[in-house]
Amino acid sequence: MFHIFQYQPLRLITQNSVSSVCLRLMLSRPLAFAQIWKSWFSSHSLVGKKNIILMGPPGAGKTTTGRIVGQKLDCPVIDIDDDVLETTWNMSVSEKLQDVGYEEFLEEEGKALLKFSASGSVISLSGSNPMHAAGMQHIKKNGIVVYLDVPTTVIMSRLKSKAMDRIVGLSPGVSLKDILQFRKQFYRRWFDIRVLCGGDIAAEAVAEKVLDAVKRYQDLELETFISTRSSRSGRSTEEDSHKLYFSDVVTQGLALDGGLFVPERGLPKFTAEEWEGLIEATYVERAQVILERCIHPADIPASKLAEIVETAYGENFSCSKVAPVRHLAGNQFLLELFHGPTASFKDFALQLVPHLFAYCIPRSCNYLILVATSGDTGSAVLDGFSRLHDTDKQRIALVNFFPEDGVSPIQKSQMIGCQKENAWSVGVKSDFDFCQTAIKQIFTNSDFTGFLTVEYGTALAAANSINWARLLPQIVYHASAYLDLVHQGIISFGSPVDVCIPTGNFGNVLAAFYAKMMGIPIRKCICASNENNVLTDFIRTGVYDLRGRKLISTFSPAVDILKSSNLERYLHLITNEDGQLVTQLFNQLENQGHFQLQKDLLGKLQQDLVAGWCSDEDCLAAIHSVYSTTGYILDTHTAVAKVVADRLQDRTCPIIISSTAHYSKFAPAILRALRIAEINQNPLSQLHLLSSYSALPPIHWGLLETLKKTGNGGHQVCAADVSVLMSHIETLIQNHFM
């Protein structure tokens, strides 16, 4: 058996390799020597008995990178091709491949891997090792597998000048590109850590990225979460000792102090080269890479995360591009976010979050998820949680509260029709702001939540955009939209774009801003409001004032919101994470109905955000105008953004307008905008009428099927009273879990 004994780091100070210079330093400057020793020992602790295993396609630089990493850690370096295979076979890899052929070579290579053993080493795999399952299972037992992810175009360029006789599977009729694409499935199956490697990156820089990635992998403490209302200086020792991680905040939803969770050390940043490496990637590939950097593998391993992402964005979306970018007119582009099963941007989070949630929660407890919606969230969350495995449905249930008279008829039909055995919709005789505030109050009512846990073994969780996991998928599509413009040749990477987003709860705008923080060159985030324009006033003046305001029912109900929950996360950011100030501002909003930003904070805000609003009349006029000139039908929310973009853009760069819902969901308003005199009140009839226009995009497949199958079934309706909502919750728990 080929075996490398564990490296013994203490030998360094007992052998002649310690120079007299080091000895003099140790005696004359003990503090300096201690710092050097601490740094050296920290590097060695990365390895210990584990191996660092470098994996990737031919030409990824595994051998060179492995040597550099080994030098930095001062530990053994093993190249599987040169040090194991050729030694075992007593012939070159190319000779063996020519001798036995493709399939037999993979088997022989796997057998050699099964006989191999090492510890405390840096190991560079062959490009084809991951194709042998048993061999990889064996070597992975004692190692951390690092995937050097190099764009296919870069690999092909590198291999042009090299001999190709060592590439397994290459033959007449099979291209190198096909082989590289085929092998990706095996690399994704086995890796623990992904390291993005652009075209011009030096091997030394790749080695540093490998070491940084391994450090992150081994230290979960680097990625803890805090509340927007916690103060760094004011936190107690007990609070510091009770660390919260991604899996905790997914299940907890809202912080105990009423604040929202944010990553303590901020979001990861991608280099320009890393982003450029994703230009050719599919949407699913981009999502996997971005989410891997935002979710620690100790919370969700990379292989499981990949499985979840594939499930979320695979067959559930009607467009293969998932979130395509379409040119509208001039410098305006539409980011189409309505190709999911329930026809709104909420599907991006809510096809993913249920699976994250099911993986993260402990098996010893049942969970009831509370949701408040102003329209699109309801059907999206019901659909998402209905796709869980049956075993998960038995321990995870959901109740969706929505304003009974504050959503469109089709949205209401969807929410009622999407009810399942573990998911229910409850209409509330009030508006969205009441529903959202009531849920916050229920979460922070420790007597009630404690009673549910003790009496029924059931905990509460949130799936609204106040849940951190809801924001991450939205970051992905904003980043992907920019990369699509680069891929289409509209811009080169680094050129700025503006984004214009219809917003009420501020989550979608916040996600775009987070994408900017992570390295996407977004210049301005334009917030588009309807007549409930409290956000517009706030961004222009710094005064958030709800006094005397009443919610107005508009044609764009998903942004009929006065209290923008996710604004709290943004203010926490621009106040330099001043939890005390954030607490003061939102307590004042709750108790007095208003607050005002200091002048310096307003200046920071206005560097990032621009805002405008649109009347119902202008919204309908925009729908008619765009259809008349382009044949494309905007939904009412996208029309709000289009109007605001027309008014506020300076036309010096492209502007991406978020098309957050399919127009089919708002058929009465759309038919009115298209100047149809008589409108049938039956939602299905309205969709059939719209389909006769043969417009772009076509009628949404999922929405049409839902209305055909379900019609307008029954649902519960309750008064606008928190105690009544709590009673409903208890009854639902009794019926489902007991």
Automatic annotation (TrEMBL):
* Keywords attached to this entry: Amino-acid biosynthesis, Pyridoxal phosphate
What are its GO cellular component terms? cytoplasm
**Coiled coil located at which positions?**
none
Cofactor entry? pyridoxal 5'-phosphate
Q: Name one GO biological process term.
A: amino acid biosynthetic process
Q: Residues bearing N6-(pyridoxal phosphate)lysine?
A: K346
Q: GO MF terms on file?
A: pyridoxal phosphate binding
Which HAMAP family does the protein's record reference? Shikimate_kinase (MF_00109)
Q: What is this protein called?
A: THNS1 protein
Which gene carries the instructions for this protein?
Thnsl1
